[in-house]
Amino acid sequence: MSSNETPRGPVDSSRIPRYAGPATFARLPRLDEVGTADVAVVGVPFDSGVSYRPGARFGGNAIREASRLLRPYNPAQDASPFALAQVADGGDIAVNPFNINEAVDTIEAAADDLLGTGARLMTLGGDHTIALPLLRSVAKKHGPVALLHFDAHLDTWDTYFGAEYTHGTPFRRAVEEGILDTSALSHVGTRGPLYGKQDLTDDEKMGFGIVTSADVYRRGADEVADQLRQRIGDRPLYISIDIDCLDPAHAPGTGTPEAGGMTSRELLEILRGLASCNLVSADVVEVAPAYDHAEITSVAASHTAYELTTIMSRQIAAARKDA
Ligand SMILES: N=C(N)NCCCC(=O)O
Ligand SMILES: [Zn+2]
Ligand SMILES: [Zn+2]
User: Fold this and answer.
1) Ligand 1 pocket check for 128: Cβ under 6 Å
2) Which UniProt keywords apply (predicted)?
3) Ligand 1 centroid vs 272 CA: distance in angstroms?
4) SS3 283
5) Of the residues 58, 169, 227, 251, which has the fewest C-beta atoms closer than 10 A?
């Protein structure tokens, strides 16, 4: 979208019932209807990298369905994200479910194409494997990026059954490949049993700082966001959100649930506290709707993607104003 065009927003839910018609994220136009977008919301229906319950391949469409109730004005950030910038639904990246290496390459190539148009990506997973090719693509454009990783798990393990590309290993691969800025790497929401203490020492050596789920509860969302913001500074930032960062009470529909997680309120508040960061792209992954109830998980994921999209739209609009 050029600066003098008005973005095309969501379908008007006061005229067309919000439950009518095919689902796009937040009832936004499809990317092919608007040509190019400032923020492209894309699904990656891939879950061949999981170590426990499968089903995240259906996550993107579940989030789209649950996003029908999102409204155009976001009071928490005092912004109308879909008026500030063109946000559009780019559909799904069609990936091979039988060949993980090929899938990883396909995701990277599709992300290259979208980022090449000038769009930022709001990706809906899929399992966490997909973060690696997305980070590769983002780093080609911005250089090594700061990473904020919300998850119960570290996802810096080495291999599973000898496999390098899995949902438990994307961030170790990313560090090895030099695509992350190791001075600004944080996990948030970490908890649960590990394979051994070495998991933590390995992770620390890679450069990660950890804000556990209990830290969030004890210190509160504002203080955590302040600390993260200081660490990130003005570096290009990628946010990866595994929905299992939330307690299973807030996100039952996921493949590797762990007790004692954050509330959806804490997650949304931390994100709002990061609104001034230079968010270049983001993902929300690991929504597995078969284990969900009453769309609890996909509603939480849709609101999470909405906050992230709002941050990106505000920054795009602010940059246009300055230019
Ligand atoms: N949910 C993600 N991304 N990773 C979980 C890996 C847990 C494990 O099987 O050890
Ligand atoms: Zn996880
Ligand atoms: Zn994960």
Assistant:
1) yes
2) Hydrolase, Metal-binding
3) 26
4) strand
5) 227
Ligand 1, atom 1, residue with closest C-alpha: 256
Token duo for residue 130: 């997909």
pTM over 0.90: yes
Q: How far apart are CA 90 and CA 122, in angstroms?
A: 10
Burial of 218 (0-12, 13-18, 19+ CB in 10 A): exposed
Distance (angstroms) between ligand 3 centre and the Cα of 129 equals 8
pLDDT band at 172 (very low <50, low <70, confident <90, very high): very high
ipTM (interface pTM): 0.98
For atom 5 of ligand 1, which residue has the closest CA? 168
For residues 320 and 126, give the distance between their C-alpha atoms in angstroms, rounded to a whole number: 32
Nearest residue to 147 (alpha-carbon basis) of 219, 87, 228: 228
**Interior angle at CA 243, CA 239 and CA 246, nearest 5:** 110
Residue having the nearest C-alpha atom to atom 6 of ligand 1:
168
- pLDDT score of 5: 80
